[in-house]
Design brief:
Radius of gyration: 15 Å
Distance between the termini: 20 Å
Length: about 170
């Protein structure tokens, strides 16, 4: 079994304009969330020639449980019990970010990315600067499931779980 390099990055940022309230039903909002998060991941992957991800309800359920747990904490914390699943964490002001904004913050890390073997993947020398991005585009990852939970202080957290997880020491993202 692979041991994954876990990266803890607290992603808090100022509000992003343009987030509109939705009058959709809860089930249609969930479908929309899944579709939108999946589309952002797959758009980035397609641009690199990496195969698309499929949504996993099981991974989303795992992500939901972890999101509920870390929503009570003051800082983001990775699930250290994960073995084969990968994980990305995000935190920001509730209602200020769309699902696309949340994933885009991870994708924006590509500015510091170079496709060398882990851990030599960042032009800054710090894998923490690109670890979310590498998980989004990890070639052997085929499934994703994500969840959002309300957090203290008017924030929300998003957790995405990936199968198989990326950021494997000595391997390249794609």
């Amino acid at each position: 079994m692979h041991k994954h390099l876990f990266i803890l990055l607290a992603m808090t940022a100022a509000a992003v304009a343009g987030s509109a309230a939705s009058a959709a039903t809860p089930s249609s909002r969930l479908a929309s969330f899944k579709e939108r998060v999946l589309a952002m991941h797959n758009k980035e992957r397609a641009g690199l020639g990496v195969g698309p991800l499929a949504w996993s309800d099981a991974l989303a359920a795992n992500a939901s449980r972890w999101a509920a747990r870390i929503s009570r904490l003051s800082d983001l914390e990775h699930d250290e019990t994960l073995d084969v699943e990968g994980e990305n964490l995000w935190r920001g002001t509730k209602g200020a970010y769309t699902p696309e904004d949340m994933v885009e913050l991870w994708i924006d890390e590509k500015r510091a990315f170079r496709n060398n073997p882990i851990p030599d993947v960042s032009i800054t020398g710090d894998i923490g600067d690109v670890g979310h991005y590498t998980q989004v585009v990890w070639r052997s990852t085929t499934l994703v499931g994500c969840a959002v939970a309300d957090a203290a202080g008017g924030d929300e957290v998003m957790v995405c779980r990936y199968m198989e997880g990326g950021n494997i020491m000595g391997d390249r993202a794609y």
